[in-house]
Design brief:
Layout: H1 2-8, H2 15-18, H3 31-54, H4 65-76, E1 87-89, E2 107-109, H5 125-129, H6 140-155
Parallel strand pairs: 1-2
Length: about 160
């Protein structure tokens, strides 16, 4: 599916494999690149979504369209992105923050679900209300996300939101 989007965007289908490039957050974009990158990014997101619809790609792939769109757009524009260390992340689908993440990072970037928390469990409106009833805490990034959700739910008075 991503290979089809690359071809549609004018890149060879193996281009992203030869020189890997992630599209995760945070994105810090210099002012002079905001216009060209945002336009190309949107075009490439559409290409990824069109490719997903044209194939038997699982529905969950749409969660990744923005990231793949950015990776393809950056490659098309000849940009050389630099990975930041602004966040704690579970990028490699582990329960703990990724190696090299700073303990004083200002962003918690949740990527993959685990037994403690998975954002895809809350994909519809009824299930989304249940996120406020989760107990705080746990290990790694998922535990931090649960603690932040609990704090937000408490602040906004959502902790007792109906679960049905």
């Amino acid at each position: 599916m991503v290979a089809m989007a690359c071809v549609e965007a004018g890149l060879g289908p193996g281009e992203l494999e030869r020189r890997p490039l992630g599209g995760g957050v945070p994105h810090v974009v210099p002012q002079e690149l905001k216009g060209p990158l945002s336009q190309e990014w949107l075009r490439c997101v559409d290409a990824v979504l069109d490719s997903a619809r044209a194939t038997t790609a699982p529905t969950g792939v749409r969660w990744l369209a923005s990231m793949w769109g950015l990776a393809i757009a950056a490659r098309r524009l000849g940009l050389r992105p630099v990975t930041t260390r602004f966040c704690l992340t579970n990028h490699e689908a582990t329960a703990s923050p990724a190696e090299g993440s700073r303990s004083d990072a200002c962003i918690v970037h949740y990527c993959h679900g685990d037994a403690l928390f998975d954002k895809r469990w809350y994909a519809d409106e009824r299930k989304a209300r249940q996120v406020w009833t989760l107990p705080a805490g746990g290990a790694g990034v998922s535990g931090l996300v649960r603690s932040q959700l609990a704090a937000a739910g408490e602040f906004y008075g959502l902790r007792s939101a109906p679960t049905a």
